[in-house]
Every structure is written in structure tokens, then in C-alpha cells.
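@channel sequence for tomorrow's demo:
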Amino acid sequence: MAEPLLTTLYGMLDQRTVSSVAQNLLISEQSAAEGLRSSIAAVLGSVTSKAESPAALRSLVDLAPRTLADNPLLHVARSASDPNSCLLASGRHLVPRIFGDAEAPVTNAVGAASGLHAETASALLAMVAPVVMGFIGNQALINGMNMSSLGKLLEREAPVVRNSQPAGLSDLFWPGKSHFAFPESGQAPPRPAWQSPRWLPVLGIALLTVGLVWLFGRTSRVEKPAVSPKSAVTEPTGSANRVANDPVEAVRLSLGKIELYFDPGSTRLRPESRDQLEVIAKTLASNLDVHTTLTGHTDDARERPRNFELAKQRAVSIMTQLIRKGVPSDRLSAEGGAGNHSPEGNSAAVDRADNRRVTLEFSEH
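C-alpha cells (generated this afternoon):
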């Protein structure tokens, strides 16, 4: 299976590129890296949000350069100090076409995510825009895609792309859509009438009643505890307490048997797993001799194509977020295990919750 577009684009952020951008814009390498990642996500997010409109995609793709260099982002970065650069001029022309009236809030969001002034964030977006659009255009050309098939590709990538947006941009690009969901365990059943918003007060009373019954002795439960004992996380390890001769074992001891859990049919992490992800990112970023394989799972033991797709999307979503948090992309890989690798059955709701997860395996890089 081909690498997700966002992962491939993040892979262009090698040390030379980040250093060149930082030097030309007079900012720290950390700010440059985060600004570039946020800019890539924002440009790809805006384009992906137009996936259902072949005409809109065509208008953007036709403006993009088809080829830049072996490492196009490095090529643009090196010309950042040249006010007459054709590539930067192309980027400044592309940015308002990509974002329209949203250009200002997008620039502010990229700046906030990377701790940069709006002027610097605007320069980063101008660098990134021709690279992202050129990459998309080349993908369409190489694979013989028309705008409809390109739109379908972008729609498949949408859950991962949306999950990597700087704060506030998901709602801007996809207004009214709280999150992307995938059918889990086959086709979803019809929505019952009690899920309508006007039944929410009644539902609240019903849930309160169930809670009281549980307090008085009912033993069945549906939700997982706030933090599952098997996924308890210790503090991130650093160079001071790393096991000298075995960094893989050091990471295993630091993180324990950690697993990240998701909402049903979704790539959205459960609240307790979001905090765990921060610890994972810090640990992996300080142990660069370790390679991590992320494996996604779903709650259905039967091998269905949709379940494998969701399992892979969950793993890719975590990989993308770890890259954004500073873990090098070449230290990560993602794969889908779907329901056939689940340790529990699916007869009880708590077991299904256990199976909606991403597991981590560590090896020497």
C-alpha cells in the first residue's frame, strides 16, 4: 500500500531543509520544523476539503508546478532569501487561491502552532504551497488520474489530514463535521429515533438512572476505566536514564505495554490516550536509535475490507501526530492488523472497547 500523502510530504523535512529555512528566516530550527509541518498540513487540508469538487481541484492543480527538484522543499528553502525567487512568487500567488477568505485565520493558526509571527508564518505557507500542489499534481499525472479519481484519493486521506491540522483549522475547512468516522464491524445499523437531539434530555435522565442502578450493585459496564492498567505510562525517558547498551529495552521499560484507544468507528483518540500520546512522542524523540511499528486494530474479529482500512488509518493517524510532535518519520511505520489480531472477543462492549486500539512495537533502527 502506498504511503499516505501527508507522511510522504513530512518526509521532505530533513535536517538540511529545516536548517536552511531556519537560517533564511532567522528563526529556531524547532520553530521552523513545526511551522513547516503545520503549513504542509494546512495546505493539504484545504485542498482535501475540496475533494468533492473536481472543478475546484482542477483550478488549483493547473496553477501548480509539475516538477521542482529531487527535494523540492529544500530547493524552495534555499531560495527563501531571494526576494525575486520564482518559486516564492508562485507560492504567494497560490496561497490566496488555496485558502480564499480563510488565508488570514490559516496564517494565524500556523503561527500559533509554531510560535511564529504572522509574517513568518505567511512566508512558510508561500514556501510550502507550490511544493504540496506540485506533489499532488505529479501524483495525478504519474498515476493517470482525472480530477474525480484524485478527489476520491483525497477523500480517503481526509481522516488523517484532518487529525493533523493546527488548532482551529479542522472546523474551518470542514464546518459542521465533528470528526471523520468509518463504519466498524460492517455496515452501521439505522440510527434509532432516541439518538435525535430532541431526545437528549430524556437520554440524560435514562443514563442517570442506569448510573444509579450500577451504584447499587449492577456489575456490567460498557466504558473502559479512565486509564487502563495495562496501558499505564511512566514518565518519558531521556539520555540521563537511558539504558546505555540497549535503547530499545529502555523505551520498553519507560513506556510499558502501552496501547492507544479510539472512539468507535473513528480515528479520534479517547481522552485518556491523548495524554499518553504526548509521553510517547517525548520518549521516542529522545531515543532516536529506536524504530517504532504502529499497528491498528478494530473491534470486529472478522476480516472485512472496511475494518482493515480503519485499522490502517488509525495507525497512520498516530504516526502523523508523532511526526508533528518531533519524531523523525524514518523512525516510524504504520500497518493495519484489523480485528483478527484482537486479544479479546467482541461479545461484550468492554471487550470491543479494548480492541479499538493502536499497539506499539519497538526495534533497533
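heads up for whoever presents: The beta strands are 259-261, 290-296, 332-336, 357-364.
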